[in-house]
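Predict the 3D structure for this chain.
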Amino acid sequence: MIWCVEDDASIRDIEVYALQSTGFEAKGFEDGDSFLSALKNELPDLVILDVMLPGTDGIEVLKTLKSTAEYVDIPVIMATAKGAEFDKVQGLDLGADDYLVKPFGMMEMISRVKAVMRRCKPKTVNRILQTGGLSLNPDERTVTVDGKRISLTYKEFELLALFMKNIGMVFTRDALYLKIWGADYVGETRTVDMHIGTLRQKLGEYGEMIETVRHVGYKFGGGYDK
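Done. Predicted structure below.
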């Protein structure tokens, strides 16, 4: 979601339209105060921020963004008036990621948005969980056993992911039921036993890693050697 903070309605509407026409979600704000208020409920992926705004101007809005922990990583492109070099330099010094000089074309704006989003995109972290020949990829939602991919239901995958993130931790049936099915789900904890049983079968010999803790629940041993 791209947020455009611009007091000129015609420019703001064109910016939003151009972004939406190229596949982005976009929303417009007429002043800094309404923009800052909206941040309490939602965070954008990038902001195009005009310097000259009524009330709280763009520079003050930028200072607020970059001094607030929740907002500091939001990429910002400043829109400055032609010849306002001080605004451009000040914006960059305060942490803006790029700038546009008015009047600017929509193709230039889109190009700069894409470039900034590429630069600011979080680096991919390898989060694959693995023990022995059992491997789980949370991002791709895949599980392999000795290199062979196996098919799990949504709940089976969630159970296994929880176990592999918490090796050795004992979970009661009630705790597993609450974490995987949620408080609003209508059922019974025997559902947990049934899913554990099918999960063990699908994991083959690695199913022995899911240990039953008598009168309590289950834990993932993580110490199985094939």
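The mean pLDDT is 89.
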